[in-house]
Recover the amino acids of this structure.
RNA sequence: GCCGCAGUAGCUCAGUGGUAGAGCACACCCUUGGUAAGGGUGAGGCCGGGAGUUCGAUCCUCCCCUGCGGCACCA
């Protein structure tokens, strides 16, 4: 047998016979390492301890202290342990796949009866028994036909399908714990006892399509989370609780911003406070766009079928459109996008190259018949307002215009405190229209703009819209969740479908290129994100109710009204709370309602012309002269673009 | 759209095969209280909609609607 050289992380080299396993290497280094070892890293790949090494390699032995590989293994082994537990409890359940995901794992099962929440407890208990068995994990490489025969015998059709999808030259690995086995590419721990007993938890059951395909059978998925220790698990569960407290649907009710109801699924009833916030955002965006050279328009909500046929929506997106039934013989539809309307405005005049770039914006309300299961508070609705705009430009202007949109969008996100933004670039899909040349140009325009701006981005090959590539702007919020908001798309197609032209300097009629862009994306969605980002504690300039002036005793009522008047005169949204309630009660109520500033006034304040200032979330109060407070707050009320 | 769970007062939720209950919110009264719920009284419900089983359904069965958690989808 030939000799191979293995290089350890410290640079030392050791000679072994070809075919040595990392396990044997670990034992050779020290007996204790052999016991503690959980896996190895061979030439940068995560390896099982049992896989033979047959050439010179770099090798590192991993223990539970190596967090990344350890967590991956623990999660992966838990997936197997869970599948084994499920099959031991319900032998007729068929297994499918069980990958590691962020924070944990899931496993998809095919079972006639649904798993109940109580079942999760039963499964957890069984899993703990399996962990306590400390069953050694062993792996075998199987021949394809043997594996298929084995699964045919055991009536595991999903596994057979998986094997058939694995390329012929890849080894088929079978992993065993005790008498239970699973087809798996590994790696795995040495024995089930290496899984910590108390740092994981089964979370939920949900339906999931086999192979993610909605045409195939619905399986039952059990999700679990696992961490390196109990503290990490606890902090993850805390995180979930914190995230739940930020839920914009709950806060939207507490802050009396909006509600949703059965008569209009997926459409928002904006209350006065919510609509105030909505309008604040629009005012802000209007100023920013005006400065950036946009002109605002408004186009019809309901337009004739002919328009949607020209745009391509009628045949491609009919299922997602709201149609309007009328008493004449015409077919109408509610607009799902603003672009066709903007095409009509562009085409209404003969355009010169001197008019370009032409930037048409609209706070247009669009309706899309989203699948019922997709609806989610403000984040996924059926009617929403886009801060939409279309930029018509010449090919020469294209890159520059992309760059400008990118700058504008980042500057706007910054004003809202979102500085951690990443970009997805989706390139030409298989199913597309337009020439390869135009795709080359539009993809290059987006890339060049990003490169010039020094932005990093992730490319999603083949994920672009059928008419052009797109950028998507993803914000990371205060608790590290990602939200997709803005978009920038290059489109050679719509101008062509609508026969749009401009007259060039040499008098030729040429087709303009069109950019689709939205910065907030959907106002509804952006408000949902803002609420969750700030846990309801909106920045002062955005808060719909900025100040409540609360009387401590009724003798201060008159003074409170004066204070409110002074605040209003300074442009601050203020109201008086003169109700016959204790100050404790008022403070609590307005804190729950996320009012940023409470000014409490009693006899002392009346006499001294002061107010007692209490900021949301702070226990301390500060008594200041009324004029100082008005001045300070009116400064704070200034939108960031006007500061 | 698919799988599962749920729908009872404005909100959060309890409950039973014999047509309903709590807390908060609301109204009125007492209370003028110094920074996250003072006390009392009262009003408030087609128990999501429809059909069936039953002497009788909020409760059991079926269909539909809506919501929630996922999956799929997101031009």
């Amino acid at each position: 047998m030939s000799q191979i050289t293995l290089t350890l992380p410290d640079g030392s080299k050791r000679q072994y016979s070809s075919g040595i396993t990392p396990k044997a290497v670990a034992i050779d280094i020290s007996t204790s390492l052999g016991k503690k070892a959980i896996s190895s890293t061979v030439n940068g790949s995560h390896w099982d301890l049992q896989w033979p090494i047959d050439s010179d390699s770099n090798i590192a032995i991993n223990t539970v202290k190596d967090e990344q590989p350890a967590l991956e293994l623990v999660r992966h082994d838990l997936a197997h342990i869970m599948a084994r537990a499920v099959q031991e409890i319900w032998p007729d359940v068929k297994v499918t796949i069980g990958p590691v995901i962020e924070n944990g794992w899931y496993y998809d099962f095919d079972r006639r009866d649904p798993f109940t929440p109580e079942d999760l407890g039963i499964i957890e208990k069984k899993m703990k028994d399996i962990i306590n068995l400390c069953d050694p994990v062993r792996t075998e490489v199987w021949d394809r036909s043997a594996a298929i025969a084995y699964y045919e015998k055991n009536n595991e059709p999903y596994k057979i399908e998986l094997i058939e999808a694995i390329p012929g030259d890849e080894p088929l690995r079978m992993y065993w714990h005790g008498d239970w086995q699973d087809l798996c590419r590994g790696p795995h721990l040495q024995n089930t006892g290496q899984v910590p007993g108390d740092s994981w938890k089964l979370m939920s059951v949900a339906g999931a399509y086999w192979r993610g395909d909605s045409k195939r059978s619905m399986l039952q998925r059990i999700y679990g989370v696992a961490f390196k220790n109990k503290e990490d698990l606890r902090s993850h569960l805390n995180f979930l609780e914190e995230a739940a407290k930020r839920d914009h649907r709950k806060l939207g009710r507490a802050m009396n911003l909006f509600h949703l109801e059965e008569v209009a699924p997926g459409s928002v009833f904006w209350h006065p406070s919510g609509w105030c916030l909505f309008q604040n955002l629009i005012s802000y965006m209007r100023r920013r766009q005006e400065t950036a050279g946009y002109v605002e328009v408004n186009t019809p909500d309901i337009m004739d079928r002919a328009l949607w046929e020209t745009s391509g929506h009628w045949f491609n997106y009919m299922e997602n459109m709201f149609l309007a039934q009328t008493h004449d013989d015409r077919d109408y539809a509610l607009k799902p996008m603003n672009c066709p309307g903007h095409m009509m405005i562009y085409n209404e005049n003969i355009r010169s190259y001197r008019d370009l770039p032409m930037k048409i914006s609209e706070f247009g309300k669009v309706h899309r018949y989203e699948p019922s299961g997709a609806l989610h508070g403000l984040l996924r609705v059926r009617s929403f307002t886009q801060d939409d705009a279309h930029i018509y430009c010449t090919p020469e202007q294209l890159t520059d215009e992309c760059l400008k949109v990118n700058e504008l969008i980042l500057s706007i996100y910054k004003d809202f405190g979102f500085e951690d933004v990443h970009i997805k670039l989706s390139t030409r899909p298989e199913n597309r229209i337009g020439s390869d040349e135009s795709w080359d140009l539009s993809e290059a325009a987006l890339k060049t703009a990003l490169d010039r701006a020094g932005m990093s981005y992730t490319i999603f090959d083949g994920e672009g819209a059928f008419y052009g590539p797109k950028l998507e702007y993803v914000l990371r919020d205060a608790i590290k969740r990602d939200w997709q908001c803005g978009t920038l798309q290059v489109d050679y197609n719509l101008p062509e479908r609508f026969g749009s032209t401009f007259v060039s300097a040499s008098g030729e009629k040429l087709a303009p290129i069109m950019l689709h862009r939205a910065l907030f994306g959907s106002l509804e969605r952006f408000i949902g994100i803002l609420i969750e980002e700030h846990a309801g504690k909106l920045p002062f300039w955005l808060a719909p109710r900025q100040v409540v002036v609360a009387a401590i005793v009724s003798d201060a009522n008159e003074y409170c009204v004066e204070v409110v008047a002074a605040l209003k005169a300074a442009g601050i949204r203020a109201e008086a709370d003169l109700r016959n309630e204790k100050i404790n009660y008022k403070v609590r109520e307005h804190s729950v309602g996320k009012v940023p500033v409470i000014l409490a006034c009693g006899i002392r304040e009346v006499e001294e012309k002061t107010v007692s200032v209490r900021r949301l979330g702070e226990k301390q109060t500060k008594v200041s002269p009324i004029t100082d407070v008005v001045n300070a707050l009116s400064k704070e009320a200034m939108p960031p673009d006007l500061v």
Remarks:
- The mean pLDDT of chain A is 93.
